[in-house]
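Hi U.,

Before I forget, here's the chain from the pilot set. I'm dumping it here mostly so it's searchable later in email.
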Amino acid sequence: METVATGIRERAATQYDTALQHLTGVDVDGSPEALHQYRVHLRKARSLLTLYRDALADTPAALLAQLLGEQARAANLARDLDVFWPSLDPGALKDEVGRLRQRTYRIFHAEAEQQQRDRELALWLLKLSWPCDGRVLAPETERVRQHLKSRIEHQCQRLLNRSSTPQWHRLRILIKRWRYLETLCGEPSQLALLKEGQTLLGDFNDLCSQRILLKPLQAGKGKAARQARQYRAELKAAQMTQKNALDDWIQHLLMKNSADAPIR
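Structure:
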């Protein structure tokens, strides 16, 4: 039977190796898919290490999760700009965002170079033989699944009572972790509803990120500033529309659960 220590270490190592393969292709003038996949595979590896942290308490999992989290965060702003910049109409605002994207990529590459030793440490830790207390992966996965289910239900109820952008972000992370759990260790064939929610939450997060990006650009009297102010207002309206769709999805999710139907 597959143990937690071996199963999670091997899966995390596979995801991390894949992330590093994509890192070599990250280029501001190339396809944004390389940076996107780099972040996705870092998050998958880190999610596994975080989700199974109780069972991996005597292993390097906590240190690895920290290292991978720092590497992923260095790419966040560049990814936000990769999504935002192509969506803008040609003009002063798009030119300004394009210059910001160029600067952000330069910063990312500088930080990635500084993180080389961290990457070497992570690779070494993933090649070690981790201490094993005999816990079997399958039942531990079920325990993790039930814990995530409880946290998601609690977060949904919280949002129905009083929503805020940080609370939506927390739900997005929980949904994403559950999808990663099922695709890497569980039942990927039963994820339709969670995938729908993750898409809605991802779109909402993009709108929030774009409004944040525009805030410093709207100061001043130039054409780019005027366009930024106008576009920020349009994004705010889009946020409300997206929030209504998310409210409907949450209610659907909770109704399925109250009827004792599987929600994954």
